[in-house]
Amino acid sequence: MTTVDAFWLLHPFLAVVLVYPLLGMVLRLAQQTRNRRLHEVKHPPTVGRDHADLGKWLAGGVVGIVLIALVVVIATKNTLQEFTGGPPRLALLLLALIGTTLAFVALWRARKPIYRAAFAFICWAGVIALGVQPEVFRLGDNPLEPAFWQSHFWGGAGLTGLMLFSVASRPEIHRHLHWRRWHIAMNCLAAVIFMAQGWTGPRDLLEIPLSWQKPTIFSCDFEARTCPAPAPAP
Ligand code: HEM
Ligand code: HEM
């Protein structure tokens, strides 16, 4: 395996060993938090705090693996000399990456509602801005077409938004019942998208060839699902 292929595996690797195990813990603690509150089941009083603390790490994990995937996809598409837009565009993208990361760090520490909302929004906007670059493959960009709903990128973008919103609204979820209800509804959707990502991710992994196979595989017609006849054996 070449170094480039190893970089491409970094994102799936971290999703499997870091994000999905965390999701399991967050879901279990969510169920315990709810049971403790509604049915007075005897769980330790810390389950709510543990759920929210691990939830924050889950959100961080999602933002982290999404940024890693985007950096790898954009950085490995062309060589530095062939980079579309040259150094000015590269500098702009680097700035967007740094800004997105800093916005997440600021969200982690912010207290005032206006700052939490602003940093969550900036971080999400940064992820989308990097994701809509021409180097990033997206199955479809039109929500009216089925391809959009099967897209690994748009699933990831939606999930990132939902995770950031949960982190930003943590104090409100604690304080108000209607925020808690919103939190549950939105994160049931998030749980479904996590499952969908677990399908579309391995699907993409199956479809993306190894770097040295790309010239041959990409000469295939993906619409007609046919490939040129192989050259005769020497
Ligand atoms: C798939 C992800 C998630 C699901 C399914 C989920 C679900 C839930 C559920 C069912 C509850 C209990 C509500 C109740 O008492 O009726 C809860 C509480 C809460 N969640 Fe989440 N959640 C998720 C992620 C997150 C994240 C990322 C955060 C961000 C920090 C978060 C913060 C909170 C907070 C602060 C509470 C209140 C805890 C308490 O009562 O002490 N959750 N969540
Ligand atoms: C929390 C779950 C996940 C999220 C939020 C997520 C999100 C993303 C995003 C936003 C991209 C960049 C756009 C693109 O190239 O399509 C991407 C790329 C990719 N994802 Fe995921 N993904 C998740 C889980 C997975 C899993 C479980 C796998 C496979 C086991 C996977 C495999 C891939 C592959 C192969 C790519 C192409 C780029 C690369 O490998 O760096 N993803 N993902």
Description:
The chain has one domain. The protein is built from 9 helices and no strands. The chain has helices at residues 3-38, 47-77, 86-109, 113-131, 146-149, 152-168, 170-175, 177-207, 214-217. Helix 4 (113-131) runs antiparallel to helix 6 (152-168). The longest helix has 36 residues, at 3-38. The chain is globular and about 75 Å long. The relative contact order is 0.10. The model has no long low-confidence stretch (mean pLDDT 93). The structure holds protoporphyrin IX containing FE (HEM) (2 copies). The site of one protoporphyrin IX containing FE has 27 residues, from helix 1, helix 2, helix 6 and helix 8.
Q: Could you write a compact summary of the structure shown?
A:
With 234 residues, the chain is mostly helical. The protein is built from nine helices and no strands.
Topology:
Blueprint lengths: L2 H36 L8 H31 L8 H24 L3 H19 L14 H4 L2 H17 L1 H6 L1 H31 L6 H4 L17
Bound molecules: protoporphyrin IX containing FE (HEM) (2 copies).
What is the domain total for the residues?
Answer: 1
Average pLDDT reading? 93
Shape annotation: globular
Oligomer: single chain
Count of strand segments:
0
Helix count from the secondary structure assignment: 9
Distance between the termini: 25 Å
Helix content, binned percent = over 70%
Report Rg.
Answer: 21 Å
